[in-house]
């Protein structure tokens, strides 16, 4: 597994990171822990969490994985999003069960996916950032994770205004001085990431969604981060707001892309997924690419893609993706909840 240095933070880790947004919700604790251990065995050393992930239980589940491995892995958690309402007690248990059943029926009941999305049952809650919240959230995460420090502590879905406030900056500096976080970052939209990179200290890294293929100069933000000595972490490798579906549709009529993907062999959809991971690694060669890898198939494909980055056929397919041009789909800079999923 390729290793990278995360900007000037002093953190060295794997180029591929494991996104844990679904741990404890879509993915059971047993399956999640098995997948995390398998990923670590394949060389993955970066794990991305947040208090809101898994409807509020991901950190507690992940603590079992970190036990005995803490000095071997890098850990990011965040502050600024709370899990959906009604996550605790009997009501929370019933809600989680209803969501689980609904997810199983999504493929068979027309319109159910959209209704589930609009219900708000899965929507994390934005929390206004305050120094008190930063301190209390970190203490809660450390307690749930069973550790006394995190490698990266990120402001989750922060605004440009929030990351410029003196009280927030002082609180982050105090956290760094305490040793409870090795580095601090933002995990927000590209506008906030750009502001973070321009500001510099106390921030050491920026996490944001991978720019869509129709974005002008998609490597610009990564280049800016590198020039500033800032670590960069990319998520949503498969795109947000319909980008993957749009690329798949356009591949049917774009002979160049279709041929480049076909040259990789195997199922076209899986091959396209490998190309998009390779694109992320190409745009962010010195940072971390976050992907959800809870299935053995996904883990094997993603690790295999890292190992195949010198393959001319894979590079040609990435180039074909970048030449697609404007798609008329959602902008890559759209704010998302940093789900750490590919």
Radius of gyration: 19 Å
**What low-confidence regions span 5 or more consecutive residues with pLDDT below 50?**
328-342
- Molecular shape: globular
Mean pLDDT: 88
Give me the number of helical elements: 13
Order of helices and strands: EEEHEHEEHHEHEHEHEHEHHHEHH
Beta-strand content estimate? 15-25%
What proportion of the residues is helical, as a percent range? 40-55%
The N- to C-terminal Cα distance equals: 18 Å
Order of strands side by side in the largest beta sheet? Answer: 3-4-5-8-9-10-11-12
Structural class: alpha/beta
Biggest pleated sheet: 8 strands, parallel, barrel
Number of strands: 12
Descriptive notes:
This protein has 342 residues and is an alpha/beta fold. The chain contains 13 helices and twelve strands. The strands form three sheets. The chain has an eight-stranded parallel beta barrel, surrounded by six helices. Strands 1-2 form a two-stranded antiparallel sheet. A two-stranded antiparallel sheet has the order 6-7. Helix 1 crosses helix 2, helix 5 runs parallel beside helix 6 and helix 11 packs across helix 13. The radius of gyration is 19 Å and the shape is globular.
Please tag this protein with its features.
342 residues; alpha/beta; 8-stranded parallel barrel; two-stranded antiparallel sheet; 13 helices; 15% strand; disordered C terminus
Question: Secondary-structure blueprint of this entry?
Answer:
Blueprint: E1 3-5, E2 12-14, E3 16-19, H1 29-41, E4 46-48, H2 58-66, E5 74-79, E6 81-82, H3 89-105, H4 112-119, E7 125-126, H5 131-145, E8 150-156, H6 166-178, E9 181-187, H7 190-199, E10 203-209, H8 220-227, E11 231-235, H9 243-253, H10 255-262, H11 268-283, E12 288-291, H12 296-307, H13 312-322
Parallel strand pairs: 3-4, 3-12, 4-5, 5-8, 8-9, 9-10, 10-11, 11-12
Antiparallel strand pairs: 1-2, 6-7
Helix pairs in contact: 1-2, 5-6, 10-13, 11-12, 11-13
């Amino acid at each position: 597994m390729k290793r990278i240095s995360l900007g000037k933070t002093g953190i060295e880790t794997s180029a591929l990171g494991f996104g844990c947004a679904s741990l404890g919700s879509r993915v059971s604790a047993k399956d999640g822990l098995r997948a995390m251990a398998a990923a670590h065995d394949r060389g993955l050393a970066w794990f991305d969490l947040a208090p809101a992930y898994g409807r509020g239980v991901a950190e507690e589940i992940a603590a079992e994985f970190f036990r005995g491995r803490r000095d071997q892995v890098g850990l990011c958690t965040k502050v600024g999003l709370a899990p959906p309402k009604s996550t605790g007690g009997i009501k929370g248990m019933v809600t989680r069960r209803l969501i689980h059943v609904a997810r199983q029926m999504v493929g068979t009941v027309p319109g159910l996916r959209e209704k589930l999305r609009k219900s708000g049952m899965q929507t994390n809650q934005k929390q206004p950032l305050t120094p008190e919240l930063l301190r209390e959230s970190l203490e809660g995460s450390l307690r749930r994770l069973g550790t006394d420090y995190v490698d990266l502590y990120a402001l989750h879905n922060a605004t440009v205004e929030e990351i410029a406030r003196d009280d927030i900056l002082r609180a982050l500096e105090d956290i760094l001085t305490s040793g409870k976080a090795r580095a601090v970052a933002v995990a927000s939209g590209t506008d906030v990431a750009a502001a973070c990179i321009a500001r510099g200290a106390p921030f050491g890294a920026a996490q944001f969604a991978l720019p869509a293929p129709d974005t002008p100069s998609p490597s610009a933000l990564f280049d800016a981060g590198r020039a500033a000595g800032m670590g960069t972490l990319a998520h949503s490798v498969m795109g947000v707001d319909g980008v993957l579906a749009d690329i798949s549709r356009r591949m049917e009529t774009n002979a160049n892309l279709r041929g480049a993907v076909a040259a990789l062999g195997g199922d076209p959809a899986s091959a396209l997924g490998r190309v998009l991971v390779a694109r992320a690694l190409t745009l962010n060669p010195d940072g971390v690419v976050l992907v959800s890898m809870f299935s053995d198939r996904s883990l094997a494909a993603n690790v295999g893609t890292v190992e195949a980055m010198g393959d001319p056929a894979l590079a040609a397919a990435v180039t074909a993706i970048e030449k697609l041009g404007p798609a008329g789909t959602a902008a890559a800079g759209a704010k998302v909840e940093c789900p750490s999923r590919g």
